[in-house]
Design brief:
The complex is a heterodimer of chains A (about 325) and B (about 260).
Chain A lengths: L48 H24 L3 H8 L2 H9 L9 H31 L6 H16 L2 H14 L10 H27 L2 H9 L4 H31 L11 H12 L3 H34 L4
Chain B lengths: L7 H4 L4 E12 L2 E12 L3 E5 L6 H8 L7 E6 L2 E2 L7 H7 E4 L11 H12 L4 H14 L15 H13 L5 E5 L7 H16 L3 E5 L3 H7 L2 E6 L2 E6 L1 H6 L4 H12 L4
Parallel strand pairs in B: 3-8, 3-9, 6-7, 7-8
Antiparallel strand pairs in B: 1-2, 1-4, 4-5, 9-10
Helix pairs in contact in B: 4-5, 4-6, 6-7
The chains are: A mainly alpha (about 325), B alpha/beta (about 260).
């Protein structure tokens, strides 16, 4: 991590030396959650008692200032009523079809399902595109051109326009089967088309990050090109791109909210329906919290995977 | 042509293993090999010496078909491997090559590094491949490292693993490309010992090296390369003590001045 200062000896967490006042911020500093125990400090650079004390004091001050600013703002009470009304938050979370609005808490499952389906498809399609773009065989030349055009096109066109084009364009074609799918299916299709262009570039960066000598070593042993790719190049490439890859997927999780423009009742759509029925925006806050609950674990998982991989290779012993 | 090679007495031993004729190789406008002719007998050990950029590495890479050649022929036991329609993977299985920078697979343990090619190229079942790999590892004193990943090994250990990895394919010829050049001086000996053992076992080897003392000890013949040609090809006793060509003499004078011989 940070080699600039000597690591103080690990000592058990004994509480904050400074008395922590019972303010709003107090709830944020759960001991150990950001601390230096366990897998080593991530947010704190040095670890140790003094650093912990300083960083928690600083967190308190910053948070306190932000909360104070929010509370003293002239429109504070209206904003709190319109965005953070506990009753509205709860009502929109559980939903009430009789009153004409859906549960945001239930609708988030559609986001999760769309995300999972899109993720798997993107991983496959993007890899295919990356491999075609990296290929050298003259037979594949037209496919190389095609994949280049594909990447340029879908990286250039805003996702929202792709969504609208597919969600309203494909049904208008009135083809059998293809034109009669649900909004969620068109949404996933648009997400896959758009994100595969980005992710294929991430893959390509990963493939390029593996030194050419690795290919030479594998081929010199008599391994075929595809075996070399499968066992030598791809595993190293994927390891190198896990952080940017998961970063794209965090982004993908949020972008499932755009599918509401096609009429799919996912979390954002349900929140929209609630706000236009009850005239209170607290439902959006609920949706935001639910999206955070989805994305933060993925972010932490990314850190864990990177850590585990590094530790395993440093530890030497194989699994 | 100054690069005429092929020692008749060597060819008599037990057949010609490698026959190179008129080999030319260019990278763009830069012609690296300008007509190489060389014959290597079975069980023969030949060292290639010469300054960096003289074409030693390129010659070895061409032999392993890692570099397509521009002109000439390479044959193994009479069969031309540079002809069209040759299965390169099949050829490479009988020629092992070890590189200066080891090139172990960093995401695999030592055992996985050694067994990958036998399993995936030859189709050897995992237990058999591992048994054979362990036998090779123990022969070269690496058995206790089988679970380690490459970045936990010293340079000398990595290079020995790389040699074992190549040997696991049971090649009939080994090409060694300056395998000690990236090593700390105190680690060179352990790798050279491995090569000596291979030579004693009758392995046919082409060795590009800067270790002149080692070349003098181990080689049946030493070839001096300059600017993509074999300038002189002679037994080490002759080449190191009484070089015929002025260019060889100039090269050896520089080596001696640098304290490397």
């Amino acid at each position: 991590m940070d080699g600039s200062q000597p690591d103080p000896p690990a000592e058990p967490f004994t509480g904050f030396p400074a008395a922590s006042p019972a303010t709003v911020g107090g709830a944020w500093q759960t001991p150990g959650s950001f601390g230096s125990a366990g897998r080593g400090p991530r947010l704190l650079s040095g670890g140790g008692r003094r650093a912990t004390a300083i960083s928690s004091a600083s967190t308190l001050v910053v948070l306190g200032a932000l909360v104070a600013l929010f509370l003293v703002a002239p429109g504070s009470s209206q904003v709190r009523h319109v965005f953070f009304n506990p009753t509205d938050m709860w009502q929109s979370f559980i939903g009430n079809p009789k009153k004409g609005y859906y549960s945001v808490g239930e609708a988030i499952w559609l986001n999760i399902r769309m995300f999972l389906a899109a993720e798997v498809l993107i991983l496959g399609l993007a890899l295919l595109i990356a491999l075609i773009r990296q290929s050298v065989s003259p037979v594949l030349f037209p496919f190389r051109v095609l994949s280049l055009v594909y990447v340029d096109f879908f990286r250039g066109v805003p996702l929202l326009l792709v969504l609208l084009a597919i969600g309203f364009g494909v049904p208008a074609l009135r083809l059998p089967v293809v034109s009669t799918q649900s909004a969620a299916i068109y949404g996933v299709a648009a997400l896959v088309l758009s994100y595969s262009a980005y992710v294929s570039e991430v893959y390509r960066a990963g493939l390029n990050s593996v030194h050419r000598s690795q290919t030479a070593a594998a081929r010199s042993l008599g391994l075929s090109q595809s075996t070399t790719l499968r066992y030598v190049i791809l595993p190293q490439a994927v390891r190198n791109i896990i952080p940017p890859l998961l970063n794209d997927f965090i982004s993908l999780q949020k972008d499932t909210a755009l599918v509401s423009t096609l009429g799919a009742i996912e979390a954002n759509g349900a929140a929209q329906i609630y706000s236009s029925t009850v005239f209170n925006y607290s439902s959006y806050t609920v949706a935001a919290i639910l999206f955070l609950i989805l994305t933060i674990p993925l972010a932490r998982l990314t850190d864990r995977l990177i850590d585990r991989d590094r530790r395993r290779r440093l530890a030497g012993a194989a699994t | 042509m100054p690069g005429e090679a092929g020692m008749p007495e060597a060819a008599a031993a037990s057949g010609t293993a490698i026959q190179i004729a008129g080999l030319r190789k260019a990278f763009g406008a830069n012609e690296v090999l300008r007509g190489i002719d060389l014959e290597v007998s079975t069980h023969e050990v030949i060292c290639l010496i010469g300054a960096s950029g003289s074409g030693k590495s390129t010659l070895l890479r061409c032999l392993n078909l890692l570099e397509p050649i521009n002109a000439g022929r390479i044959s193994l036991w009479g069969q031309e491997i540079t002809a069209a329609g040759i299965d390169q993977n099949l050829v490479r299985r009988s020629i092992g090559i070890v590189f200066q920078s080891y090139n172990l697979f960093p995401h695999m343990s030592v055992l996985q590094n050694v067994t990958l090619a036998p399993r995936k190229a030859l189709g050897t079942p995992r237990p058999a491949a591992e048994e054979e790999a362990r036998a090779l590892l123990s022969r070269f004193g690496l058995l206790d490292k089988e679970a380690e990943f490459p970045d936990r090994l010293s340079g000398g250990q990595q290079q020995r693993v790389a040699i074992v990895r190549a040997l696991a394919m049971r090649p009939q010829i080994m090409l060694l490309d300056e395998v000690t050049s990236a090593l700390d001086p105190e680690l060179v000996a352990e790798v050279l010992d491995v090569i000596r053992e291979l030579a004693a076992g009758g392995m046919t080897m082409l060795i590009a090296t800067h270790e002149m003392g080692f070349a003098r000890d181990i080689a049946r013949r030493v070839c001096f390369l300059e600017e993509g040609r074999i300038i002189e090809d002679a037994p080490p006793a002759e080449l190191f003590t009484d070089p015929k060509d002025e260019r060889t003499r100039r090269f050896l004078r520089r080596i001696i001045a640098a304290g490397r011989l």
